[in-house]
Write a structure and sequence with these properties.
The chain is mainly beta. The chain is built from five helices and 38 strands.
Amino acid sequence: MKLRLILATAIAAATATLQAADVNVSGSITANTTWTANNEYILSGYVFVTEGATLTIEPGTVIKGEVSTGAGAAALVITRGSKIMAEGTADKPIIFTSVLDDLDGSLGSDRKALWGGVVVLGNASINSRANGEAAGTPAQDQVEGFSVSSEQIPLITFGGTDDADNSGVIRYVSIRHGGATIGTGNEINGLTMGGVGSGTTISHVEVFANQDDGFEWFGGTVSASYLVAAFCGDDSFDFDQGFRGTLDHLFTIQIQDEEPGDKAIEWDGATSPVTATPISNVTVTNLTAIGLGTSGTGDGSNAPINPRDNATVNLHNSVFVNYERGIEIESDIGSVAPVISSNVWWSHVSANNTAASWGTSQGSSSDQDATSYFTTASLNNSIADPMMKGIAYTAGSRGLDPRPAGTDSPIWTLPTVAVDGVAATDYVGAFGNTLWIRGWTNLDIAGYLPVDLGGGETGSITEDTVVDIVRGSSSKAVNLSSRSDVTSSSAITAGFVIGGTQNQTVLIRAIGPSLEAFGVTGVLPNVQLELFLPGADTPLVTSQVVTTQSTTLSAELGAFALTPGAEDATIVAVLPPGSYTAVVTGVDGATGNALVEIYELD
């Protein structure tokens, strides 16, 4: 552990870090390979992991695709029989993005289709081909969006007979700005899974600003959890060709831009024939879906879910908000009626918040009437404002917080449905008290989410406020120590910057009474400490106490101990990269000499 203090009057200098080396990658990977976090990998064209090889990617590794389109689009493809072991962590996610991305969140949500995406292909069963042609025995298909030679067709083929097939691990991974166009209306999804088996692990994956679907499953049996589809240009989650699995804790937010979002879920079962087996059977639980938030034409084009093509539908414990209206169940849904229960639905168009409006897709006249899902009391589908803490579509706003704002929110009060294989929750939607998208997602880096201030998120710190600290971050704050006088007209201000791409834990101490132990006279007797974002009038958090956690961290960092019971003030916060200002004033107009210190936690 190392403590660095730099006087505020000195010129601030960021900690020097070694620059990652660029490693260009193209063609095929045919032997076990490891990509390390001290390099940055640049994908050019299709990169195939083949011949049973395993690609291992260390936590914190960045992979960038060349700006590309058509047959030359940069994409990573894990072929049948090969594996990807991409095991990031909450502190060190693995990032797939464009070479244009500075990794600071500045590349906007409108920058889509800058490269391809990530494709995983397996040997699990599928039920049909996307083009409607005979699928063969066992059924196989080629992944959409690729243009390859006849010799390369096996590299984009998926499907087989091993439903327990293992294609590896994808955990704490962010995939950004992809979806390159291959041909007219033919784009690559953010994460494509073709015939991926249940032995594969998919968890904590974000797709940000993809041109086409965020996630798409073509057959297979892999279940997944904690998925984020943010500002994608088509559907957030798409199932097809006999996918069977359970998906829990999903979050999507869509946006009205040049490539607006469409459905939260396009729930397809098969292509031709729609009765092909194995019949799709997907359970979705604990989804929070935020729609475009624009009124549109009222034709239901931004309906949240669209079951069709003989799909077996199980949808529970979810929240839909800011969609026009409508459950769009198409006439070819088959003989098994969708099971839809314990969900919250709320339109930004107040007139549409009726059972008749939500139950009518306003699409084809042959679509099924879904009104009964809202009029059958035992289904517990509630048309009610979910009372989220905040919905925001703008980077840097810090206003997106889809957690319930109070205990009377229907997110807390609606009865939940037990789902096999998924831990029970006492809330519907993706979020209870924990904002699990914080820290590792581009949504956080780009400033959509509120700053993590533990119990202080409501505005004030108590002695018992505890923050889930981040260790091992390479995003270092500028550390400083400054002593000055607080007067009736002048506060002590200390600006600091967190660089890099990762969140950083900081300890801020504003010390008045404890200075007396060092012979300082005229100290500030009662200290107030506030933390601000640039230009903000309202502080992120205010503290007039020394917390238990800050006392422990002070000792760990080697900082001098504060006098027990003295009215100093501290803040512990996990902050994303950016600029901040700590302001020290006196409680009730008190004046005197004070010291402000800002420490980084290594």
